[in-house]
Amino acid sequence: GGLVTLLIVDDAALARQRLRRLLTDCADIEVVGEAADGAAAIEQARALQPDTVLMDIRMPGMDGIAAARELARQQPAPAVIFCTAYDDFAIQAFEAAAVGYLLKPVAREQLQAALERATSVNRAQLASLQQPGEARLQLAADTGHGVDVVAVSEVRYFHAEQKYVTAVHPGGELLLSDSLKSLETEFGERFVRVHRNALVAFAHITGLQRCNGGEYRVRLAGIDEGPLVSRRHLAALKKRLGAR
Asked: Is the separation of the CB atoms in 80 and 42 below 8 Å?
């Protein structure tokens, strides 16, 4: 029962219009907003608190999966139904995750069925949506007054403190809710562990700097001070740097 509020997210205006048209027949649905990309979707969802988000997967900037990951952190989290023109995207993963999944062009009956089944997405479901071996190209953080996005290629290192992980880049820092362990798994060889609280972008290492007390820091292009290297990681790091 009751009215279901809906946010439509698609980079194509025509696709948004078409979905709106399909939804005018659904008496219990109210379209409360539209967005053309993932970052705008997150901001609109925070402002409008829709029950459900109907979202395209492939959009320039931040894609639908990255946006859905951020939406899952909102309280309350909206239900997410993905729309895509590509069925090569792991449909099995969507079905397993019980997240709505529609193939374009969307048919009215399928849309209504998906809306009835829609439930809010949790992080375990979102993790299953990411195809193995497909690391993100961008990291996004909802700052409370907008969404900050940084390219993974710009990140110099990830640093863990208490519950948070910070991605440090030449333009500043981004507060993530990923764990260091999950980032290490996702980005594999590109980031090398130098300390239990730090992963460093191997491509950006310019050298090692010896500090007072015999400790080493990693020197990184574009930032003033890199993280400390712990004793247990020093030999492996030197070896890998020597081999490049």
From this structure: no
**Do 53 and 78 meet the contact criterion of CB atoms below 8 Å apart?**
yes
pLDDT for residue 50 is more than 90: yes
| DSSP states along the chain | --PEEEEEE-S-HHHHHHHHHHHHT-TTEEEEEEESSHHHHHHHHHHH--SEEEEES--SSS-HHHHHHHHTTSSSPPEEEEEES-TTS-HHHHHHHT-EEEESSPPHHHHHHHHHH--B--HHHHHHHSPTT---SEEEEE-SSSEEEEEGGG--EEEEETTEEEEEETTEEEEE-S-HHHHHHHHGGGEEEEETTEEEEGGGEEEEEE-GGG-EEEEETT-S--PEEPHHHHHHHHHHHHT-
- pTM assigned to the model: 0.57
Percent of residues, the chain, with pLDDT higher than 90: 46
